[in-house]
Amino acid sequence: MALLTPQGVKEVFQFQKPQGREHLRRLLNWEDFDELRDAPQSILLDTLYDSVIFAVGKGFPWVEVVQVVKFTEELLKETKGCCITEAVTILGNKLRDYQKQFNITHLLALCDYFHNTFIRHYKLYQYLLSQDQEVNLRVAHVQVCSPPQPLPLTEGVDRDLWKHEQRVAELSSAEVQEHANVLLLKETLRLKQLHMLQKVFGGEETPVELQPRQTLRREALEGLVSEAIHIQIACLQELLQYEIQAAFNILDLRLQKKRLSLGAPPPPLPSITAGQAAFEDYPKPSKANKGKKAKAKK
User: Fold this and answer.
1) 76: nearest Cα among 46, 102, 104
2) How far apart are CA 95 and CA 88, in angstroms?
3) How many angstroms separate the CA atoms of 176 and 170, rounded?
4) What is the rounded distance in angstroms from the CA atom of residue 257 to the CA atom of residue 170?
């Protein structure tokens, strides 16, 4: 309390509450403490800080504000563990002891302040300040990702129009994928057909009659041609079936796009400022044109 001076309490009042509480703690020569784990000390500091705010708000001189803080700290210590009757008696005796420090108006204001705060909530003060509190505290560090910077409002799109554009883009992408699948299947079937033909004409299980430098018999040649035709027809049939199905899928996608284009939401109305600008840009009739119009009317 020795460091608490009129200039000190003036600085406490001028700071915001967090900085003011911390400055008051240093002036009281208190050691630093954990606000969450040492609840009684934190509540006591809050009470002393509130007494400063009360005294300044009531117009107490800075010298008397120091006495109010001293009065508050002594009252809290002397009433610790007492019943409410004893606390009221201690409050009356202390007001009598400090009557030379304050004028009658400020003394009555101080009495009303402690009756309406400390005495009215006396049991709560005693529970918090007189008993050791068990604090179960868990600290979790959570990383908060800030949202991305929004685009300018001028680049915004109506929600229904945006959904329509997204659906059209999905259908267009699906159509492109259908064409790509057809090309991929063509290449796959070409390689498959080439592999099967190579296996027929040059495989390890080729009969002796088909080996090089030997004359092919008519039956063997007909079998080779028939097998090659069968392979080509099978691959062509598979490709044709897939192309037909892909064509139906593409037509269905185009039909959906056509329906979407017919039911597209209307474009947004132009803004008022844009209309005014267009009106201002419209050429105004000159005085000569006004004169010609007047002569024409005559």
Assistant:
1) 46
2) 11
3) 10
4) 10
Written as one letter, the residue type at 264 is A
Exposed, middle or buried: residue 291 (CB in 10 Å: 0-12, 13-18, 19+)? exposed
Q: What pLDDT is recorded for position 210?
A: 46
Rounded Cα distance between 14 and 97, Å, is 30
pLDDT tens track for 94-131: 999 998 889 999 999 999 999 999 899 888 888 877 76
pLDDT in tens, 273-292: 555 555 455 555 555 555 55
- Closest CA relative to residue 246, chosen from 179, 298, 170, 191: 179
Question: Angle, nearest 10°, between helix axes 17-27 and 6-14?
Answer: 160
Residue count of the chain: 298
Pair of tokens at residue 151: 């685009």
pLDDT exceeds 60 at position 212: no
User: For residue 60, what are the contacts with CB-CB under 8 A and spacing of at least 6?
Assistant: 68, 102, 106
Cα gap 298→294, rounded to integer Å:
7
SS3 191: helix
CA distance 101 to 124: 29
Task: Tell the burial category of 40 from Cβ atoms under 10 Å away from its Cβ (0-12, 13-18, 19+).
Answer: middle
Mean pLDDT of 61-69: 93
Find all residues with CB under 8 Å of 149, minimum gap 6, and list them.
Answer: none
Cβ atoms within 10 Å of 236's Cβ, excluding its own: 12
